Amino acid sequence: MLKFDGNGARRTERLYASPDVEAQRKYVMSLLAPQPGERVLDVGSGPGYLLALIAEAVGSTGATHGLEQSLAMNELAAARTSGTPWAHIDEGDAVALPYPDGTFDAAVSTQVYEYVADITGALSELRRVLRPGGRALILDTDADSLVWHTADLELHRRVLAAWEEHLVHPRLPRTLPGLLRRAGFEITGRHVYVMFNPQMAPDSFSIRMMDTMANFVVGRQGLTEADAQAWRADLRARSAEGDYVYSMNRYVFLVTAI
């Protein structure tokens, strides 16, 4: 698993500050559409970027709660939402939400449930803390949707196989519809958000992910530091030759608590 200690949290914060992830947050906000006065939960709130936007949307007559296991992440989120005292940062687990039944009007979870082993329990907990008729937005990635142009296909395959070790459910979106229905939700919308980098810009999502992945895979699947550097060099060569392509699908489900 990835570590979200002090250094890991700051790396994640820098990744989430990229223009690509900022655009994703705007897309999520347009679909979730938090309203003034609503109570909204962010499961896996991380460094608090999305939580801060939700807090601004619901205003002082509403409330937001960001739930996160990492103390380092919670410190970043608390600093980011310090100007909105109705934004609360809570330490906890997605499979045991520390809130009474029916607390929230809406909830959101982006890139979180793919890390949760007990996905059935986590979705049941999400349903429990939503009021009847409350809504939720869930966004996760299917690892098989990745398109990343490389010359050394075998090395690339090994890197991706090693990278998958940081996930519990690398292909979660294809099973989410049934899981959501069984947890007590009605699916009201399905969307695909594409992370697309047609070039290797310095602040692009893919170049920041490339560094994170190269660090993670060393020592896994037989990969060495030299392998990781060769993989990075291959991708940079594709950029230099003008044939760089990165694309990843993120699947969005909008649901209502029955």
UniProtKB/TrEMBL annotation:
Listed GO MF terms: methyltransferase activity
Q: Which GO terms describe its biological process?
A: methylation
What is the protein named?
Methyltransferase domain-containing protein
Q: Where is the Methyltransferase type domain?
A: 41-138
Q: Give one Pfam hit by family name.
A: Methyltransf_11
Keyword check for Transferase, yes or no.
yes
This protein's UniProt keywords: Methyltransferase, Transferase
